[in-house]
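User: Sequence in, structure out. Go.
Assistant: Echoing your sequence, followed by the structure tokens.
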Amino acid sequence: MEDSNQNNNPTELGSDEVVPFFKSSRSQIVFEFWYLVTLLVVSCLVLLLIQLKGSEYGITHSDKVTMFALIGGFLGGWVYDTKWFYRVTARGKNNQYGFPWHSHKFYWRVLTPFLAALVAFSTYLLASMDVFPVIINNTDSAKVSFAVCFLLGYFSDLVLSRLAKWAETFIPKASENG
């Protein structure tokens, strides 16, 4: 993969330029692949450790519910991120995916699982405290917190847009007089 459209200004990324510490799009793609694999493996290991050995480390049930919620949101964001990584790197027969590789979106792809975890966890907390007109049964279940936060993490962009609309209902608008 040859990088084209190189920008002469070293402080700006062109539409097809790689992030400065990668020599080519290919090396960036390989790094991002292994980054995603590492995140998945570490997340699964942490889940197993919490599930099987949590009590030995003094993790209470409520702490376990919280950790599962965070990891659920993280993995929801990871799945979303990995889906897009696949779409922009896998071309297949006749280049069936019309999504080009955008190397300058590196930071978005690296941070997506973390941001999704924060959005999912915060939304889960609000929903479990009955702030929203949503009922979550068994909020003290680690399985429920993981599953709900996984979905909230996967759809974190949608969640943020809905939260913005919800916030507009109770945050007063600025007056036109200043």
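User: And one key feature?
Assistant: The chain has five helices and no strands.
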